[in-house]
Amino acid sequence: MTDIFENINDCCVKLKIDLCGAELAKIAADGNYTAETMEALSHLFTYLSTKKDAAMVQDILNKSRLPKSAPKTFDNFDFTRIRGQDVERIKGISSLATLHSGSNITFVGPPGIGKTHLAQAYGYECAQRRIKVYFIKATELRDKFNRARKSGSTASCVNTLVRYQCLIIDEIGHCKFDKENTMLFFDVIDRRYNKEGMFNTVFTSNKQPSQWKECFEEEDALLCSLDRIFDNAIVFNLKGKSYRGRKLKVVNVQVDNLNHEDK
Ligand code: ADP
Ligand code: MG
């Protein structure tokens, strides 16, 4: 019986229902509830709590901008392609210890190596654990900043990006951030840096962080941003061949000239 009351108590906490195990025990005793009735109640509470949990995960995923169909996960990432002495460290990111310790992550490497896949898998894992996550490509971030500047809503734009516990910025270096956008980028980084608790930012890039200044215009703001990003961070340098093109088939055929004399 104790387990049943504990379970219902835990479910009530999750469901934000103001009913504790002791209260329920009294109701059960006063009403002469049978063990079967209590089992049924426990089953019902578990069902409701599981349903609420699943809805919460779905809500986080819906707001995250991570792909909904065929999501990239750690499960569908082929880690056997990765070799080297730090393999375990890259595998270990699925524990989200980096998020708990507020450590930022940067995946650097050539196209098709799996940077975006790993960043999205990290985001997907966050959502599974009810951690609010947001995925955005650098070009989309630039466009978002441009729109906010036009409509005079830069403050709320920055506020939104600061709110997510995990912010993933994909493909840094694919586009230029002008002076004002670099200042807004700094605002986001600085505000996130000063937050307490579980917060981190994940980047992917074809370029080493030392080359990022080529893509931002206001150098001081960028240097201050980099200072904060890499104050507590882990950089994964991925080397090797692109995963893309695995299904590419090349067919070479010889076509002879039509020789009239052969006719
Ligand atoms: P990048 O961002 O480095 O350019 P992506 O992460 O977009 O590359 O990877 C390109 C494609 O290859 C994606 O469809 C991705 O899911 C797949 N891919 C890359 N590396 C792996 C891997 N190790 N296991 C499974 N799929 C991979
Ligand atoms: Mg990519």
From TrEMBL:
**What Pfam families does the database record attribute to this sequence?**
IstB_IS21
Query: What start-end ranges are recorded for coiled-coil regions in this protein?
Result: none
Which part of the chain is the AAA+ ATPase domain?
A: 101-236
Q: Which InterPro entries match?
A: AAA+_ATPase, DNAC/IstB-like, IstB_ATP-bd, P-loop_NTPase
Q: Which GO terms describe its biological process?
A: DNA replication
An example Gene Ontology molecular-function term: ATP binding
**CDD domains linked to this entry:** AAA
Q: This chain belongs to which protein, by name? A: DNA replication protein DnaC
Organism, as annotated: Anaerovibrio lipolyticus DSM 3074
